[in-house]
Structure formats: structure tokens, C-alpha cells
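#struct-queue
[09:14] JT: dropping the first one here, sequence first, then the C-alpha cells:
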Amino acid sequence: MSLDPIIDSLPEYAKDLKLNYSSLVRNNSELTEQQLWGTVVATAMATRNASLTAAAFAEGASHLTPTALEAAKAAAAIMGMNNIYYRFHHLSSNEKYATLPARLRMNVLRTHGSDPVDFELWSLAVSAVNGCGKCVDAHEKVVREKGITEEQIAAVVRVAAVIHAIGPVLDAVSASVEVSALV
């Protein structure tokens, strides 16, 4: 399964998403293949759209090692949890919460087996999708310290933004088909 048929089937009102997908994913020049496709996989998973996620997993498997594919999925999974917890810290005016232990298992941060910088980039991308400022800051700091440029970070976040936007469009298309079937 490829993402191309999904992207090509997007409605006219989502033409900018098609164009951006083409320039950012099909014609990527700023990220390594692993950084790019790990970002696609992790952020597709974060959209919660089943067809987009399935296609990203399938196509990601042809661009990533099995270890990197699982690590990208793990980044989405762990950030799905952490982003809620740490976004709560960020949004709450009660500073006490930030002093309490998280008591959340995060073993995968050490055991994912993939390139640590790439895992941090994928975690950053998912954190951007999920809107967790505390996690965005933390992961951005780590990747910058490890030599990733602002341009590369912006490229990852652009890919995340486009993949994220595609998910709701696919949901809307599906909803339109369901409504048409009822009429």
C-alpha cells in the first residue's frame, strides 16, 4: 500500500495539502530518508485516521528498517501519553504538579533501538501535532544540542503539519460518503 493513492484522492479543497505533500515528502531534500519516513509514520499515527496510518505504516516499511519503523510507532505512542501529561503541567497554573513525579513508564525512550536523534525528531513532530509546548521545547533542545539545524527542525514540523492536516480531510471525505449513502 502506498500513500500516493490517498494523497491523489484528496478533494480539490485540499489541493494545497497535495502540493505540500509532493514538495515535502515526494521531493524531500532537507531530511534523511529515515528522518522523513519516521516523521510520516509517527505523525500519521498521531492523526488517529486509520487509512492514513495504515498507508503510512505500509509505505514506511519500504523506507525504514523494521527497527526504525517500530521506533517511529513507539515515538507516537509514548508522546501520545507524555503530551497529555506534560501539556497539563504547562496549562495548569498550579506549579505543584511540575514538582510531582510523573510515575509513567517511559522505557522506550532508552530501548527503541533506532538513531536517538531521529527518535527525538519524531517525538518533536508528534509533540507539535499534539500541541504540547513543554515537550516541543524539551525535544527541540535535545536535537539542537545534537547538531540538528533549525531548518531541519522546521522541515520535520512542516511534514508533521501536512500529514496532520490530511487526517481530518480524509475523515471529512469519509463522513461525506456516509451522509450521501443515507440520503
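[09:21] JT: and here's the second one, same format:
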Amino acid sequence: MLQKNSNKINVGLLEGKVALVTGAGSGIGKAIALLFASEGATVVVSDVSVYAGDETATAIKINGGFAFFMEADISKPKDVQNLVDMTMKQYGMLHIAVNNAGITGPISPLGAYPIDGWDKVISTNLSGVFYGMRYQIPAILASGGGSIINIASALGKVATKAAGGYVAAKHGVIGLTETAALEYADQNIRINSIGPGYIQTPLLNALEDDARNALVGLHPMGRLGTPEEVAEVALWLASDKASFVTGSYYNVDGGYLAQ
């Protein structure tokens, strides 16, 4: 059964809620998991990396929160089913799910795009979100309702060259989100998506200065976003403060899409 931490004093926005976050070992997923925990949620941390996922769960516990880590590859439906089943076994409820895990995929024009790369990016970035909702929705219904947040991308609304698999998958995530939102709007499940611009992660920090500066230049605000800025929007969508919000897409992109 879900337990409370006696060290917690302030009541957070997600107090008493159980949240599942995929790709929570680093970047946006980690920031979301940490913020949700700080707002009172018990967080199920999922990632393909045992080391990174354990690190996030440990950080939550050190800060007085509750979390457990479960390794899962979201491109495999059985892994996703096991993840949700274990959450229900451990806590008996699921209120919030963030489908965040994803990959960039190959960088290539479509005429030379590798078939295996296409299959991998679609199975992770699009099918993985479908598998997540497929198993999360029944669990959330059984828990009395809640919120699902799918991490899409600014490239879910527009395109860029040499990223056909990624662009197609993220466009698909937005459409899938809207469909699910309509299907469950009258059953107390709100389903929304977030479209980050280019976010400051270790991957981007490893770029050469010229390449990184070029990405910065794509954003009218003149900088990259941070994982924490995306997490704040996810927190709002997960909370009761967004009680009349479903089927929506929120870009966190420093003005990228306004150009």
C-alpha cells in the first residue's frame, strides 16, 4: 500500500498521487520525476539504463520522497505492461503517467534513411507512447481517473531536414494524444502533450560550439531551454490546476514555433 513520508510537512500539488515517468534517468524525464516527487507524488521511475534510473530514484529518496525504479524498454509492449502491472501491485493505484522516453534516430534524408533506423525510432517514439497509454489507461480508470502527459516535440508541429523518422513519430504522438483525450474526456482522464524546443541536456552540451550556437539561434529567446522548464509545465498538467485541460499541446520552445 502507498505510504506517507512522516518527514514531509508541506502538502504538494501531487500529494497522495502515484506517478509513472518513462525515460526518467536523465534530462527532461529526470527533471519531471524529481519535481513530481517534491510535490508529494510517489514516483515510479522507468528507464532502459539501470544506472541512470537508480540514480534518479535514489535522489528522490535522499530528498525525503518515495520512488522505485523499474527497467523497461518502451518499444517492447511486454515491458510496458509489466511496468504498469508492477506499479499497481506495488501501490494499488496509478494517477499520473508521463510518456517521455524517446530517441533522436538517424540523421539522413529520406532517400537514404536506414530502414532499421526508421523502425527503431517509430517503435520507440510513437509505438512506445501507444503501448504506454494502452496499459496506463485501464490502470488510471481503476484508480478513479488522472492525467497522462506525452512528451512530443516542437518538431511534432513542424519539420526539419534529415530527421524524417523523428518528425513523423512526434507528429503521430500529438495526433494519438488528441484521439485518446477525446475517448476518455468523460471518464476523468485528461491527456495532453508537451512540445519542447531544443533543451539543454548532456547530449547537446557535447556538441561543438558552432553546432550548439546554431541550435541556440533557432530560438527567439536566444538560449536553449532547460529540463526544469519543461517539468514545470508537466507539473501543471498533472495537477488539479489543469482540471479543464485535455487534448491540448503546449510548446515549451522559447518562441521556436512562433517564427
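[09:30] RK: nice, looked through the second one.
[09:31] RK: The longest strand covers residues 189-196.
[09:31] JT: good to know. The chain is about 45% helix and 15% strand.
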